[in-house]
Design a protein that fits this description.
The protein has helices spanning 5-22, 35-48, 50-54, 109-118, 121-146, 169-176, 204-215, 232-245, 249-257; strands at residues 31-32, 56-60, 64-66, 95-97, 99-108, 181-182, 186-188, 200-201, 226-230, 261-262, 265-268, 278-282, 286-291, 296-302, 307-320, 327-329, 334-336. With 342 residues, it is of the alpha/beta class. The protein has two domains: 5-71 and 89-169 and 287-321, no CATH class; 177-284 and 325-336.
Length: 342
């Protein structure tokens, strides 16, 4: 299908406005994003996906270095004879490593033509802007939760969740603080009617409470910033069990809300979070870094591929601020159902 005249005209206007926004003459040639526009670009990414705004995203100067502290988990209140009490907050001892990261949002001509026919120019522009920003932002989370390696050439077919794009938070903890991740089989069995076997739990509350009390540092276990990240397979199983048992409207409401609070902590199921994984941590403990001055953009209509491509290149990476504030059960070790007979 060819690009219709309406969409072609809208695309020319889009390219002109994009060039004006970034202060360049031609967006079809790769250009560096200035520091003020890097800030605006990061803000646009954060605004497009709510969960991304909850974690720590920030620019850094070096390709590798020490993790930037955004919080201090020790006490900040006291006194000192003859002077003023102070508490420190410095860059931590953990390391981060950034790597080349290349994003491309491609829109086929058929879709652009449909957009052009379906609305006016302003609506077309909004769809163009939102599509690229939203996809890039979601990929930051997709890789953060699922990334395990850094391939010289990534394979999106074999690794649809960005497993080979970068090492995400869970993988970093596996390599740097493996004791923070449960490796024994855990069985979530909400249908249990008899005595529970070793490693078997009837509720998510029981799993999360033990995970927190076993692997989160004692000084952090009562920190109100702790939350639970829980996979949709687990919450769906728990909700189905509760809904089947509910015989009152109030019980059904409770069942619908059970994934909002687990083990006394606020619960989230982020985009692309593995279905059987559980993590107890602070959202600020999850970091994404982008190296200053490395952001480049390019936006062009590629006739040979019959699509419009919006590209975003930068050096980017992931980090954990405090390993002892991250406790997890890996999805490979989480089973839904009864534990086998001894």
């Amino acid at each position: 299908m060819q690009l219709n005249q309406i969409a072609a005209g809208f695309l020319k206007t889009y390219s002109t406005q994009l060039a004006k926004t970034f202060g360049v003459e031609d967006v079809t040639k790769q250009f560096a994003v200035t520091a003020p526009m890097e800030t605006k670009l990061r803000s646009a990414l954060l605004e497009s996906v709510e969960f991304l705004r909850m974690i720590s995203t920030m620019p850094v100067d070096q390709l590798s270095g020490q993790v930037v502290k955004v919080g201090n988990y020790g006490i900040a209140t006291g006194r000192k004879a003859g002077g003023r009490f102070t508490s420190g907050q410095d860059v931590g001892g953990f390391k981060y490593q950034l790597t080349e990261t290349d994003s491309c949002s491609a829109l086929p001509w058929a879709l652009l033509s449909a957009w052009g026919n379906a609305g006016n120019q302003n609506e077309f522009m909004k769809k163009m802007n939102d599509n690229a920003t939203h996809r890039f932002a979601l990929d930051m989370l997709r890789v953060g939760f699922n990334g395990t390696s850094i391939a010289a050439t990534s394979d999106p077919v074999a690794n649809p969740l960005g497993e080979d794009v970068n090492k995400g938070w869970h993988q970093i903890v596996k390599e740097e603080a493996a004791d923070q991740i449960v490796t024994d089989p855990i069985y979530f069995n909400p249908d249990a009617t008899e005595a529970l076997k070793d490693g078997e739990y009837k509720t998510l509350d029981a799993i999360v409470t033990e995970l927190k009390n076993t692997l989160i540092h004692p000084s952090l276990r009562n920190d109100p910033r702790l939350v639970v990240l829980v996979g949709s397979d687990l919450t769906a199983t728990a909700q189905t069990k509760l809904m089947n048992q509910a015989d009152k409207p109030s019980e059904r409401v409770a069942a619908q809300q059970m994934d909002k609070n687990i083990g006394g902590m606020r619960a989230y199921t982020p985009p692309f979070f593995p279905g059987k994984r559980i993590v107890v941590t602070m959202l600020s403990n999850l970091h994404i870094y982008t190296q200053r001055g490395t952001s480049h953009r390019k936006s062009e209509n590629v006739e040979d591929r019959k699509q419009y491509e919006d590209k975003y290149w930068r050096n980017e990476g992931y980090a954990i601020e405090e390993f002892e504030a991250y406790a997890a059960i890996d999805e490979a070790n989480m089973k839904i159902g009864a534990a086998p007979a001894a």
